[in-house]
Design a protein that fits this description.
Length: about 150
Amino acid sequence: MNCENCGAPIGPGQIRCTKCGSRIAANVPPSPAVQPSSAQAPPPIPPAIPPYAPQGPVMMVPAVRTTAPGATASLVFGLLALFCCGALGGIIAIVLGAGANRKIAQNPALYDGGGAATTGIILGIIAIIINAIWLIACLATGQWYFVNNL
């Protein structure tokens, strides 16, 4: 047998010509899908049906963000610490603000109020510093009257 393109001799079982590289049709076994069969062909597979019918366009509703627990309280205690509660209010403001910021960092899509929490922390720190300076000044000058009448 010879190649149809170049006429080179083809050996038994060869699929391609060694000279030109063309495919030899006589030596290629037929694919299983092309083989004729005497049995009846199976019915075609129906297309997949979705488990539910589409209900029209879907609108994405943004999640409602709530103020983190402790953010507003941190701001209130920070303000109170500056005017009347002193260092105790400042410590409470710092603890509540840090907890609120932690909640916001864990789930930013759900919680809001980072500004209030951070402001409460800053006001609490300022109140503690002011009270510490005031206490040191009273102790340094010997004016125990102000310290005793807290």
